[in-house]
Amino acid sequence: MEAFDNYKPADWRTSFESKLTVESSLLYEEYTGHIEKSGNDQHQYRLIRLPNNLTALCVQDVEAKEAAASLSVNVGSNANPAELLGLAHFLEHMLFLGTEKYPDEGEYDVYLSSHSGSNNAYTSFTETNYHFSVENGALEGALDRFAQFFISPLFNKDRVDRELNAVDSEHKGNLQSDSWRFYELMSSISNPAHPFSWFSTGNTETLKGAARELGLDLREELIKFYHKYYSADVMRLVVVGNHSLDVLSEWVASKFSDVKSKGNTRPVVDGHPIGKAELGKLIHYKTVRE
Predict the structure, then answer these.
(1) Catalytic center residues
(2) How does pLDDT run across 111-163, given as a tens digit for each residue?
């Protein structure tokens, strides 16, 4: 308990000091407080904050067989408009379809696969996460392509219907997933006025169909959502590789400093998903295998 007794939370205003990257003299701030880790942990850590308020943790693992990165946006299905359920998840899909710097929609996937890498993403209630792994020697190129999704995505209009079908197929596949069925059960018995109770994945009916009925352009609504919520201030990045902390800091600063800062865009959700009306219930359910 002694470690906890002496624990002091990080001061996000005064525990950082200004630094310049070694190669390009790019400005960033480095956390000067103590980073708690296991005594058996041989990794080296550096927590930095860019001028646009994007915070990143650089991790050097000299024995790493591959490198990886993960970026979390503190915006999830809790930001879905009530009239376009699943928009946050649809954005997750559309973000991968080319950028101004790399307009070929397959560029990111081809680069990763050609360097023994892979990628994925997910949307939860409070966050949307994007991540990849790749050979150590290809990390810089992967980060450059990855960062552009948060700087200048194209949202190719010719791919809207295809990605809608992908979202719809994902939803149909989830119908036979016990974990998703349990999540939907929890949603269905929560406070109906709270966003947690809303359909989060989305499908063609709640996205394309709803937009058509309301006379909305779904792609335009998607772009509005992106510009409203995707801010550097609510993004957290982790990069791991066998490179030095100076090199990792250099790459993070050079690739991600152009992500726009729009202030704290994290959705504010009032109330609690479980109120008095939702208490006192006993629910029995069967799994798919039963």
Answers:
(1) 92
(2) 999 999 999 999 999 999 999 999 999 999 999 999 999 999 999 999 999 99
SS3 50: coil
**For the CA atoms of 122, 60, 9, 121, what is the dihedral angle to 10 degrees?**
0
- Bridge pairing between strands 55-60 and 235-241: parallel
**What pLDDT was estimated at residue 9?**
61
Cβ–Cβ under 8 Å, residues 68 and 133: yes
The Cα 152–Cα 101 span in angstroms is 8
From residue 96, alpha-carbon distances to 150, 176, 232 in Å are 10, 26, 18
Residue type, 27: L
Residue 80, Cβ neighbours under 10 Å: how many? 25
Distance CA 87, CA 108 (A): 23
Cβ-contact 263, 233 below 8 angstroms = yes
Do the beta carbons of residue 50 and residue 256 sit within 8 Å? yes
Tell me how far apart the alpha carbons of residues 132 and 127 are, in angstroms, rounded to a whole number: 17
On the 0-12 / 13-18 / 19+ scale of CB atoms within 10 A, 288 is: exposed
Query: Encoding tokens for residue 259?
Result: 């992500």
Say if pTM beats, i.e. exceeds, 0.90: yes
User: How far is it, in rounded angstroms, from Cα 169 to Cα 157?
Assistant: 19
SS3 of 55, please?
A: strand
263 torsion bin: left (phi>0), alpha (psi -120 to 50), beta (else): left
